[in-house]
Amino acid sequence: TATPVTVTVTGAAGQIGYALLFRIASGQMLGPDTPVRLRLLEIPAGVRAAEGTAMELDDCAFPLLASIDVTDDVTAAFDGTNVGLLVGARPRTKGMERGDLLAANGGIFGPQGAAINAGAADDVRVLVVGNPANTNALIAAKHAPDVPASRFTAMTRLDHNRALSQLATRGGVPVGQVRNVTIWGNHSATQFPDIAHADVAGRPGAELAADAAWYLDEFVPTVAKRGAAIIEARGASSAASAANAAIEHVHDWVLGTPEGEWTSAAIMSDGSHYGVPEGIVSSFPVTSSGGEWEVVEGLEVSDLARERIDASVAELLEERDAVAGLGLV
Ligand code: NAI
Question: What residues does CATH 3.90.110.10 cover in the chain?
Fold first, then answer.
């Protein structure tokens, strides 16, 4: 049998953690032939609850689950890690300034990046889910100078899936027949869900985008503000859909994207794609093969898209400058 892959999940006792761990252990993330060792990292107050989740994982008797460890020690959590899912983060609480939020998250993602640098496996791949995800990924990457920056990514797959679903509804087609939307920029309200190159069951996305009133006043805000709409309806933030997106991001990164199809992921910009400056973690249209994300080249960027991409990138640069000002990157 294959050697188990070590998967570390932070924030394991949280609501995304609860929706994520069972799917990892059942083989939905790394495939039916890959056993997994799970490492659950929590803060001390979350350890007991994570132990409860570990008991339930045992009770599923998943054949692929080789072991589970629960810890509040960041060094132990990332020792030998092949896949790191950084979910736990400091949420913004009432009265908290943006600087305080960035500083609090720097205190989490800096040490986690350093622990990954010190102890993770050579092939380590990291997905940051905890918000502000793009900038938290940047902080982690900066604390891991010996790990290629391309191994640190942030999640825009949920935004991507939301765009697919909204587009399917608009086109009146099954969601499985919609592909090649792109989320550009930051996982925030400034993100730009681009449908200009989408395939909506054979119909070009540009045709639907031509209805600017629908596209810009309905579709874009619906996708960008879907998180708030879920909180409003459910009384809690997106959890199962976020976990699903994390599963799909890692699945596609490791096992490859389907032929003729791209997805969206926030990756470290090297400055050579679509005018996005170097050194920020920004979302692009990407494919993966052989375990490496590659930006889809040659898509035409309209004036509208240019303006929206630049606005989201400007926000990422501001976040980067703010954490640089705090000495976090
Ligand atoms: P939650 O509050 O239910 O769980 C977070 C867990 O992280 C808690 O159990 C907490 O004890 C733990 N935690 C906090 N600091 C930690 C640390 N330093 N080390 C280890 N664990 C730590 O939150 P939920 O709903 O699971 O969401 C997690 C994060 O994911 C939030 O930041 C949320 O904003 C973000 N998110 C991102 C999405 C995306 O598309 N990128 C979508 C949905 C949520």
Answer: 157-319
126-156: pLDDT as tens digits: 999 999 999 999 999 999 999 999 999 999 9
CATH number belonging to domain 5-154: 3.40.50.720
Which residues participate in catalysis according to the annotation? 187
- Could you tell which of 47, 108, 129 is best to mutate to test the pocket of ligand 1, judged by most ligand atoms within 8 Å of the CB? 129
Outline which parts of the chain fall under CATH 3.40.50.720.
5-154
Counted residue by residue, the chain has a size of: 329
Tokens of 317: 């640069």
* Mean predicted lDDT score pLDDT of the chain: 97
pLDDT of amino acid 99: 83
CB-based contact 117:145 (threshold 8 Å):
yes
* Domain with residues 157-319, CATH architecture: Alpha-Beta Complex (3.90)
Centroid of ligand 1 to alpha carbon of 12 (angstroms): 8
ipTM of the modeled complex:
0.99
By the 10 Å C-beta count (0-12 exposed, 13-18 middle, 19+ buried), 89 is classed as buried
Share of the chain above pLDDT 90, in %: 94
pLDDT of residue 196 exceeding 70, the answer is yes
158 lines ligand 1 (CB under 6 A): yes
Q: DSSP state, 143? A: T
Backbone angles phi, psi at 96, to 5 degrees: -80, 130
CA dist list (Å): 271 to 23, 279, 310: 35, 7, 13
Task: Supply the pTM of this predicted model.
Answer: 0.98
In the chain, pLDDT over 70 holds for what percent of residues? 100
Report which residue type is found at 268: M
